[in-house]
Design goal:
Strand order of the largest sheet: 3-5-8-9-10-11
Largest sheet: 6 strands, mixed
Number of strands: 13
Strand content: 25-35%
Structural class: alpha+beta
Number of helices: 4
Shape: globular
Helix content: 25-40%
Length: 186
């Protein structure tokens, strides 16, 4: 007789909303992933990137919206995928409600933390690509590395904090990571 395998419980968005106040978690394919509080350097990088993107959108009278975590992104039309990317840029206002973004953002940036490496480099890379995200950046300050995945053109770029990196969803937005590194003493 074959051994009986224990089935892993599948969770839904309702389970995420039932977590105790202050708990942060994401839900991918029905599996809950708890998130550790971000470090100060992590938050400062998010702030600098958010400011640069927001300023670019305002300066160019753009229609896209940039949001920072915690911001709910419901990647699919199911109830088993819920993420809180560090930075989300959404160019289709019909995806936005008071609860968050319903559907794939155009551009997602994740800042790697020691506890999020596997999620950011593997799990989310696959999930974001299949959900229809146009562009995904993985910013890893410990490795001095920025990986850029442009899923539309199937291009990948590998940069450092000495580089200026072009955003693929815009014609002329460059993020100068050397300025960020100097500001934050990275």
């Amino acid at each position: 007789m074959a051994p009986a395998w224990a089935q892993e419980k599948s969770y839904t968005i309702d389970d995420i909303y039932s977590l105790p106040e202050g708990s942060r978690a994401e839900l991918i394919d029905g599996r809950i992933y708890y998130m550790a509080p971000p470090a100060r350097k992590h938050q400062r990088i998010i702030g600098e990137l958010f400011a640069a993107i927001r300023e670019y959108i305002h300066r160019n009278s753009g229609t896209c919206e940039v949001d920072i975590a915690p911001f709910a992104v419901f990647l699919s039309k199911n109830d088993i995928d819920y993420v809180e990317p560090d930075i989300s840029v959404i160019c289709d206002p019909s995806k936005l409600t008071d609860k968050g973004c319903f559907g794939a953002p155009d551009w997602i940036i994740e800042i790697v933390s020691p506890s999020s490496k596997r999620m950011d480099y593997f799990t989310k890379l696959f999930k974001y690509r299949t959900a229809g995200v146009r562009e995904y950046w993985i910013v890893d300050p410990d490795k001095n590395r920025i990986l850029v995945y442009n899923f539309e053109s199937e291009d990948t770029g590998d940069y450092t904090f000495a580089d200026s990196v072009k955003a693929g969803i815009y014609n002329d937005l460059y993020i100068n990571f050397s300025e960020i590194a100097n500001l934050l003493n990275i």
